[in-house]
TrEMBL record:
<keyword id="KW-0804">Transcription</keyword>
<dbReference type="GO" id="GO:0070847">
    <property type="term" value="C:core mediator complex"/>
</dbReference>
<dbReference type="GO" id="GO:0006357">
    <property type="term" value="P:regulation of transcription by RNA polymerase II"/>
</dbReference>
<comment type="subunit">
    <text>Component of the Mediator complex.</text>
</comment>
<dbReference type="InterPro" id="IPR019095">
    <property type="entry name" value="Mediator_Med18"/>
</dbReference>
<dbReference type="Pfam" id="PF09637">
    <property type="entry name" value="Med18"/>
</dbReference>
<protein>
    <recommendedName>
        <fullName>Mediator of RNA polymerase II transcription subunit 18</fullName>
    </recommendedName>
</protein>
<comment type="similarity">
    <text>Belongs to the Mediator complex subunit 18 family.</text>
</comment>
<dbReference type="GO" id="GO:0006369">
    <property type="term" value="P:termination of RNA polymerase II transcription"/>
</dbReference>
<dbReference type="GO" id="GO:0016592">
    <property type="term" value="C:mediator complex"/>
</dbReference>
<keyword id="KW-0010">Activator</keyword>
<keyword id="KW-0805">Transcription regulation</keyword>
<dbReference type="GO" id="GO:0003712">
    <property type="term" value="F:transcription coregulator activity"/>
</dbReference>
<keyword id="KW-0539">Nucleus</keyword>
<comment type="function">
    <text>Component of the Mediator complex, a coactivator involved in the regulated transcription of nearly all RNA polymerase II-dependent genes. Mediator functions as a bridge to convey information from gene-specific regulatory proteins to the basal RNA polymerase II transcription machinery. Mediator is recruited to promoters by direct interactions with regulatory proteins and serves as a scaffold for the assembly of a functional preinitiation complex with RNA polymerase II and the general transcription factors.</text>
</comment>
Length: 280
């Protein structure tokens, strides 16, 4: 499956106006969701999802095909994956909340590929992705296949839908100290997902300017059909015209969406991420 999307930044003071515009465009009130997004980094040498011991069985046919597709892609290149869980501010966060057991809680396992070159449409990001829904024991599946816990964030979204198009306003928040967001290779100790979540009010936005990101998304199921991809591109181009004057759509470097893990040749020690030169 492919997803294609446009991007705009929305200032915090403009959220209400943005929701009003999108609500009018889609004839609906916003659907708010809160997600806990846990990132897992794959091994430097890709191995796919070879160990499927912890995956719930029996699987539906469509789910089995998704796992097969994911395994094939992760066998060629290692990536950072997402495990996504629905969260309630009142039930799951704060000092009175019950700890989330991520192995017993169903979540979505998400993989996104490095986006395709823009090919003359610089405003459109186009990439392959796999979402596997309602999966339990995702931490076990990740550990079984040498995927290490990297970091996690909370994600707040206001979503609108019009036919096949999704308009999604997103803002992410840090969970824990900033040291949890340094590269894995520079950490002295392996960390784990938080046992309990802090209160919603205590969270710090990832973006220092507290902005929202608007994504206008279209999905293409038959990604092997170029005509379907061109149709989706034309659809987003038409929506771009509709949004002129309300949102300033931006061309985003596809490297900003690069989730690939760099290959490390055997016998070669990884260099530090930063080298400081100066006088002794």
């Amino acid at each position: 499956m492919y997803e294609l999307f446009l991007t705009a930044l929305v200032e915090p003071g403009d959220l209400e106006a943005a929701c009003s515009v999108l609500g009018g465009l889609c004839s609906m009130t916003p659907w708010e969701t809160i997600s806990r997004v846990v990132y897992y980094q794959g091994p430097s040498k890709p191995t796919g999802i070879s160990n499927q011991t912890s995956i719930d069985k029996p699987m539906r046919k469509d789910t089995a095909l998704l796992w097969k597709d994911l395994h094939q892609n992760l066998s060629r290149q290692s990536y950072i994956l997402q495990a996504r869980y629905d969260v309630s501010k009142q039930r799951d966060m704060g000092p009175q909340a019950v700890a989330m057991d991520l192995n017993s809680t169903p979540g979505i396992l998400r993989w996104t590929d490095f986006p395709d070159p823009p090919h003359g449409r610089p405003l459109i990001i186009q990439r392959k992705f796999v979402d596997i829904w309602e999966q339990k024991k995702l931490p076990c599946v990740m550990r079984d296949n040498q995927y290490r816990y990297k970091s996690e964030v909370m994600e707040q979204q206001y979503r609108f839908f019009r036919e096949e198009t999704e308009f999604c306003l997103t803002r992410q928040y840090f969970l824990g100290s900033i040291s949890n967001y340094t590269p894995l290779e520079s950490r002295q100790h392996q960390s784990e997902p938080l046992a309990t979540l802090p209160s919603w009010e205590s969270l710090t936005p990832v973006d220092m300017q507290n902005r929202w990101i608007l994504h206008v998304k279209v999905h293409v199921l038959q990604d092997s059909k170029p005509d379907e991809l061109r149709k989706a591109q034309d659809q987003l181009t038409a929506i771009k015209t509709e949004l002129e004057g309300a949102f300033e759509l931006k061309a985003i470097d596809r490297k900003a969406h690069d989730t690939r893990v760099a290959l490390q040749p055997q016998g070669v020690q990884a260099l530090p991420n930063k080298v400081i030169l100066g006088k002794n």
